[in-house]
Specification:
Elements: H1 3-32, H2 36-41, H3 48-74, H4 81-86, H5 92-101, H6 125-143, H7 146-151, H8 158-167, H9 170-173, H10 177-183, H11 186-206, H12 213-216, H13 220-236
Helix pairs in contact: 1-3, 1-5, 6-10, 6-13, 11-13
Length: about 240
């Protein structure tokens, strides 16, 4: 898990606590402590009560910002965009719980939502299944081609490419097993699980501190994933 993801997870719980405090704890404090407002504004607000409240507020805003970033990068066609913008920190924990903890299917690979009579924002199930398969196989194709990886230098810094290669696999790790069972047959799922396990072992080995892509391609770790991706593609196709 990336450092930013760990911070976001902690922010998720702090945000929940902060909301409970604002809607339940704060009214109780005002009723039980008549001079509560004076306590939090004492010394020009440079006091433990106000500083603690400000810290929780900053974390809550950060968590909302993380959810906005995650939505635009991985889930841009989700209907959650409206409540996430207008309810901001109030809705952020609900969104985070659904996409990061429950890992519902993300909506990031459709150029235009499918319009049907029953729900104008719904995506055709067969299209989603097809896009999911294409996305996962596309990542395998990228791992299988050193030339395509080097072309990414037009977009990313050499060191960032190595990190992005592992991040691209998130389309597999964030897909529900029920969806995978519809997209791939049992033999293919076994092959993908083998690649996923090998990739995670190597990812944990480097602890996200990967060398530039030119150096990484010379390592046994890169060659292992490269050859494994090629082998899996031959069996899947």
């Amino acid at each position: 898990m990336k450092l930013i993801d760990r911070i976001a997870y902690i922010g998720f719980w702090i945000n929940i606590f902060f909301l409970i405090f604002n809607f339940i704890g704060m009214p109780i404090f005002f009723m039980k402590t008549p001079d509560f407002f004076k306590l939090i504004t004492a010394n020009g607000r440079m006091n433990p009560y106000y500083l603690t409240y400000s810290f929780f507020n900053i974390v809550s805003v950060f968590h909302w910002g993380y959810c906005i970033w995650f939505l635009f990068k991985y889930d841009r066609y989700s209907k959650s965009i409206i409540p996430l913008f207008f309810l901001n920190a109030l809705y952020a924990p609900f969104y985070y719980y659904r996409v990061k903890i429950k890992k519902r299917p993300l909506r990031n690979k459709v150029n235009k939502p499918q319009v049907i009579t029953t729900d104008e924002y719904a995506i055709d199930e067969q299209d989603f299944i097809s896009l999911t398969r294409e996305s996962i196989i596309g990542t395998l194709n990228l791992w299988a081609s050193g030339i395509e990886q080097l072309k990414l230098r037009d977009i990313y810094d050499s060191k960032e490419i190595s990190v992005e290669l592992f991040d691209y696999w998130s389309d597999y790790t964030r897909t529900d097993i029920e969806v995978l069972n519809e997209v791939f047959n049992p033999q293919e799922i076994g092959l993908l699980a083998e690649f996923d396990m090998e990739l995670k072992n190597i990812e944990n080995k480097y602890s996200k501190d990967f060398p530039p892509i030119e150096e990484f391609m010379e390592t046994l770790d890169w060659k292992t994933l490269h050859h494994l991706a090629n082998d899996i593609l031959k069996k899947i196709k």
